[in-house]
């Protein structure tokens, strides 16, 4: 059994995508990031960066004590290696998949996240910041489109690299992007969207937060006003 500490954000969806695809038994432990659940001591014990998702695996392969993992990319790698799914075993396939997983973790996710922040959440609309991150998101969509030019998925077969990238393309309209400008991304996006596991994963997210109300000032303070003192 896997305990999944989760809230329906792009990084949270990555993990439910894997767990549903792989048919792994798991239980969602909601972490309401708007309410500050990510700062509770029990959660910080397994996720010291006070960010979800995180998991606790109660049945690790070494049969020892439960294993906790934080950071969505690390969780995907851990689960893929444990279950022998969605990560090629050969050197070249494995390297390519990890490479594109890191591309999402270091590029697409952070840049799209800043795009979301300055375009939709920042109390002051800073034109330079909005253009900077909308344009960088656009560049990354172009990189993704080029990679998908001659293949169905990022590195051949469906993998953890696709599971990592897809949730960050779901809010493309909020990022100021038009999928019609990226035909290969659009084809890939629609293919993943139609997978039964994707449908189930996103439905579970909707059950937890069916409607997202406008962000309050208190939630904004919790999400975007953190310092080292907050984390401590």
UniProtKB/TrEMBL annotation:
<dbReference type="InterPro" id="IPR004045">
    <property type="entry name" value="Glutathione_S-Trfase_N"/>
</dbReference>
<protein>
    <submittedName>
        <fullName>Glutathione S-transferase N-terminal domain-containing protein</fullName>
    </submittedName>
</protein>
<feature type="domain" description="GST C-terminal">
    <location>
        <begin position="90"/>
        <end position="214"/>
    </location>
</feature>
<dbReference type="Pfam" id="PF00043">
    <property type="entry name" value="GST_C"/>
</dbReference>
<dbReference type="InterPro" id="IPR036282">
    <property type="entry name" value="Glutathione-S-Trfase_C_sf"/>
</dbReference>
<feature type="domain" description="GST N-terminal">
    <location>
        <begin position="1"/>
        <end position="87"/>
    </location>
</feature>
<dbReference type="Pfam" id="PF02798">
    <property type="entry name" value="GST_N"/>
</dbReference>
<comment type="similarity">
    <text>Belongs to the GST superfamily.</text>
</comment>
<dbReference type="InterPro" id="IPR036249">
    <property type="entry name" value="Thioredoxin-like_sf"/>
</dbReference>
<dbReference type="InterPro" id="IPR010987">
    <property type="entry name" value="Glutathione-S-Trfase_C-like"/>
</dbReference>
<dbReference type="InterPro" id="IPR004046">
    <property type="entry name" value="GST_C"/>
</dbReference>
<dbReference type="InterPro" id="IPR040079">
    <property type="entry name" value="Glutathione_S-Trfase"/>
</dbReference>
């Amino acid at each position: 059994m896997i305990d999944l500490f989760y809230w329906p954000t792009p990084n949270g969806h990555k993990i439910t995508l894997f767990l549903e695809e792989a048919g792994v038994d798991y239980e969602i432990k909601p972490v309401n990031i708007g309410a500050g659940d990510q700062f509770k001591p029990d959660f910080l014990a397994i996720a010291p960066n006070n960010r979800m998702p995180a998991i606790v695996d109660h049945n690790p392969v070494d049969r020892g004590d439960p294993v906790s993992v934080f950071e969505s990319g690390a969780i995907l790698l851990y689960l893929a290696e444990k279950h022998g799914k969605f990560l090629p075993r050969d050197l070249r396939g494995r390297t390519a998949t990890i490479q594109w997983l890191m591309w999402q973790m270091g590029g697409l996710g952070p840049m799209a996240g800043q795009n979301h922040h300055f375009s939709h959440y920042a109390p002051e609309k800073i034109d330079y910041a909005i253009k900077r991150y909308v344009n960088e998101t656009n560049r990354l969509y172009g990189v993704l489109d080029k990679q998908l030019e001659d293949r169905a998925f990022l590195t051949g077969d469906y993998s953890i690299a696709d599971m990592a990238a897809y949730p960050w393309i779901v809010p493309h309209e909020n990022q100021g992007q038009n999928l019609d400008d990226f035909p290969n991304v659009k084809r890939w996006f629609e293919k993943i969207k139609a997978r039964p596991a994707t449908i189930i994963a996103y439905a579970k997210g909707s059950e937890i937060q069916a409607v997202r109300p406008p962000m309050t000032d208190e939630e904004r303070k919790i999400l975007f006003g953190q310092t080292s003192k907050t984390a401590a």
